[in-house]
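Q: I'm writing up a methods section and want to include an example of the input and output format. Could you take the sequence below and give the corresponding predicted structure tokens, formatted cleanly so I can copy it straight into the document?
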Amino acid sequence: MMTHAFFDPFGAFAAEDAAAIPARRGGPSLSYRDLLGDAWWRLPAATRARFEHHNALYTGTMTLRATAAGRWVARLCKLVGSPLPPPSERPVAATVRVEPDPRTGGSRWIRCYDFPRKRVSVASVKAVDADGALVERLSCGLRMRLTLDVRGGALCFDSAGYYVECEGMTLANRRYGAWRLELPSWFLPGRTCVMHHDLGDGRFRFVMTIRHALLGDLFHHDGVFRSPE
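A: Here is the clean output for your methods example:
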């Protein structure tokens, strides 16, 4: 296992042998049960069932609130592929599809928001990194480390820092040019918390808040979902 904490454009220090490459391609299998340990059993049975597998479809309605500073941050986020949907004053119909991601061994989350004049899709991959940590893989090589917790019966994903990663290329069964750049703690958009609350009767509530150390509260997304009948 190798991680790269420095820029190495020519792969002089980043070459990996053939035995390591298949494991990196497939990635460690994502298991929320393993990541949570004994805390897994503090979750409601319905929540455990949703996160036991990586194949699901949910429909619901969301409110997508943003402060004035948050709206500016959302514009800046377009530079890295718009990992956040645009804010909306009115509730928006939304669907979430979860499917396996064979390349990383994790799960791909595809979120679709039906605005009055357009549909906006945001995709990311939750996977286990080479160092065994849970990571949200966003576009343009942006990665968000996540920690898991159970609070008040809710499954909580808390951000624990950001970095940019280039996975390099494979040539003659060796990997070259891989690098990772750690981003400072003040990097936008800030500290993210996602909470999954089971509501019973097949429904759950999804709440995401993002707060920046200097700019304060930026985003508050809140929605109720269920599996289609």
